[in-house]
């Protein structure tokens, strides 16, 4: 797969059985007829970033293949989040059963009211960078002019992000 075909999603959960929520989210992505999960990072635990008066998150990054255009991928992800149990929050950064973000779609850069690709704030989020580094340390993030491993090394985020679950080579939980 060429670099311009790499598609990365970040998953997070801090409500209920966080591990099962992530697993169910991945199962639902795999069940979609136009989305195929190809890689999974280990699972990390981290404190909530903005609204700190909530439970800690489990986070991971996956790589997928899809034939969907970006807006259709976003719509599919939103439908999956809803099926897994995510409620539409009126406030940002609230607890969530599952949160699935498009981190990057190859070399594509989109800046619209609907989509921000690559995802905004990547360089400030160690909870995204650590799992992403597990599966794609040499991926060059569009607009950053740096590899995932370099962005992780240089992030100012000093939050406590620790591995809590090792995902084996077959990607099994």
TrEMBL record:
<keyword id="KW-0808">Transferase</keyword>
<protein>
    <recommendedName>
        <fullName>2-amino-4-hydroxy-6-hydroxymethyldihydropteridine diphosphokinase</fullName>
        <ecNumber>2.7.6.3</ecNumber>
    </recommendedName>
</protein>
<dbReference type="InterPro" id="IPR000550">
    <property type="entry name" value="Hppk"/>
</dbReference>
<dbReference type="GO" id="GO:0046656">
    <property type="term" value="P:folic acid biosynthetic process"/>
</dbReference>
<dbReference type="GO" id="GO:0046654">
    <property type="term" value="P:tetrahydrofolate biosynthetic process"/>
</dbReference>
<feature type="domain" description="7,8-dihydro-6-hydroxymethylpterin-pyrophosphokinase">
    <location>
        <begin position="8"/>
        <end position="137"/>
    </location>
</feature>
<keyword id="KW-0289">Folate biosynthesis</keyword>
<dbReference type="GO" id="GO:0016301">
    <property type="term" value="F:kinase activity"/>
</dbReference>
<dbReference type="InterPro" id="IPR035907">
    <property type="entry name" value="Hppk_sf"/>
</dbReference>
<dbReference type="GO" id="GO:0003848">
    <property type="term" value="F:2-amino-4-hydroxy-6-hydroxymethyldihydropteridine diphosphokinase activity"/>
</dbReference>
<keyword id="KW-0418">Kinase</keyword>
<keyword id="KW-0547">Nucleotide-binding</keyword>
<dbReference type="Pfam" id="PF01288">
    <property type="entry name" value="HPPK"/>
</dbReference>
<comment type="pathway">
    <text>Cofactor biosynthesis; tetrahydrofolate biosynthesis; 2-amino-4-hydroxy-6-hydroxymethyl-7,8-dihydropteridine diphosphate from 7,8-dihydroneopterin triphosphate: step 4/4.</text>
</comment>
<dbReference type="GO" id="GO:0005524">
    <property type="term" value="F:ATP binding"/>
</dbReference>
<keyword id="KW-0067">ATP-binding</keyword>
